[in-house]
Amino acid sequence: MGVVIQNQVWEPPPWLNLFLFSSSFVSIFGFTFFSNNANPSTAFDLGSSHSLSSIFLRFQRTFLAIYSLVSVLEGLQSVYGEVEYSYYGFTRDQMFMVVLYGFIVCTSVGTFLGFFASSMDQKKACVICCIFHLVASVLKGLAKLPLLSSICSAIASFVFSYSFEAWMVSEIEKLGFRRDSLNEMFWLMTFWESVALIGSQVIANWLISGNIENGVVFPSAVAAYMAIACLICIGKGWKTSVFTSVSKSHEMAFSPPILIDKRVYLLGVAQACVHFALTIFWLLWTPTIVADGREVNMGMIYPCLLGARMLGSTAFPWMVTGPFSIRTEDYVIMAFAVAGVMLFVPAFDYQEIWFLVAVFCIFHACVGFILPSLARLRSLFVPNDHRAAMMSMYHAVASCMVLLVLGVDFYVWKLGNACIMGMAVVGLFAAGFCIYNLRKPQQDHRSL
User: Which UniProt keywords apply (predicted)?
Assistant: First the structure.
């Protein structure tokens, strides 16, 4: 009896995206309705509430618009992945070397810029991020230098991971808004970043128009124009002033709290473990799904993952200021545990595609919940003047961990995807253990 092999490309059901996106907006509108009924007065009760509300809303909309625009820029620089390198004739070994060089350079340069941002105006780091994106776009689209372009793009992504959060927190502090304002910004940043990344995929698909050559060149040109627009918006959006002297800030960037404070250390290790797990996931999610030669439309799964992250981010305000009001350390531990279990399943055994997509969506929902939670914990335990330096330093630790794993897998001993995914699982559980140690009563918590 012959075996008939159906050569059918698997795609997620259309209702999955609809469910994730509609659930996200239902969660947002539901929380808004609950907040208005629970506290009819405005959250800005610092005297002239109406004027403060308008000031904050103007700041919030301006910042989120700039942040979303840079997030689209981030997505355009990395939307094609291996396809782009294949277009330039790179082999698998050469692709690995490009990734290796990118990690090495961005770790060293990005960490230095993080300390630079802490000792100078936070706004300058955001400008540097956009400049590197502009240079990467020019090198890719005009000069046809994909290696240098990838390195510049990696540096820009590294700086992006901490610069805008540090800038936003410093502005919130100077404007004098309350804690609820800062918590709201954290989850909105995660939400709109996910929306922007989906938008970058839509733009890239429209630009490619069935021609891979156009798809590689046109996004670079669009990214260059967007980088220029971001620079203009950052420069003219609003004026900032350095609230500490340069010499004092320079000393504070390297002062003991960021290096020896146990709470900062635990929070930094948790952040490094999250970055490590996310990097491993984005490196292995495609080969995990297409194992055994299965044909899958990855472009339809990617929005599902980001939609799940959007949904997870909308759960954050419910837990912090909503009807639950659970301590941050408690619920983020549960999120780490669930995320670790979700990655353990594909690392442990072969699974069907639909099951892998479901597991990965749950994982990203946890990530959408974890990211603003860690940002809130940073505001509790890390002085604002140290935030960029702390985030860049532990992000560099995560990059070094990834470099070590990839180097061993490529040069020393073939680890296998399951083993590497298992390391990401260990990292998530380790992050949960670090947050667990923050549950102990602490003195001198910083007020927001």
Answer: Membrane, Transmembrane, Transmembrane helix
The residues with which 10 forms a beta bridge, in sequence order, are 296
Residue 426 to residue 377: CA distance in whole angstroms = 22
Report how far residue 437's alpha carbon sits from residue 422's, in angstroms, rounded to the nearest whole number: 23
More confident residue, 377 or 8: 377
Q: At what angle do helices 49-78 and 179-208 cross, to 10 degrees?
A: 30
Rounded Cα–Cα distance for residues 157 and 71 (Å): 10
Is the predicted pLDDT of residue 165 greater than 50, yes or no? Answer: yes
- CA–CA distance, 230 with 331 (Å, rounded to integer): 36
Rounded to the nearest angstrom, the gap between the alpha carbon of residue 436 and the centroid of all alpha carbons in its chain is 23
Residue written as tokens 């709470």? 263
pLDDT of residue 2: 39
What does the pLDDT look like over 244-266, one tens digit per residue? Answer: 433 344 444 444 455 667 888 89
Among candidate residues 136, 377, 116, the one with its CA nearest the CA of residue 271: 377
DSSP secondary structure code for residue 79 in this structure: S
| pLDDT attached to residue 363 | 95
- CA separation for the pair 274, 264 (Å, rounded): 15
What are the chain's domains?
50-238 (1.20.1250.20), 246-439 (1.20.1250.20)
Residue 342 CB contacts under 8 Å (≥ 6 apart), including other chains: 359, 360, 362, 363, 366
* 191 band by pLDDT with thresholds 50, 70 and 90: very high
Phi, psi (5° rounding) for residue 105?
-70, -45
Query: For residues 394, 160, 403 and 145, what is the CA-based torsion angle, rounded to 10 degrees?
Result: -160
- What pTM, to 2 d.p., does this model score? 0.85
Instruction: Report the 10 Å Cβ neighbour count for 22.
Output: 13
- 438 or 282: which leads in pLDDT: 282
Residues with Cβ within 8 Å of residue 216, at least 6 apart in sequence: 80, 84, 87, 140
| 296 strand-pairing partners | 10
Structure tokens at 282: 């984005």
Backbone dihedral region for residue 253 (phi beyond 0: left; psi -120 to 50: alpha; all else: beta): alpha
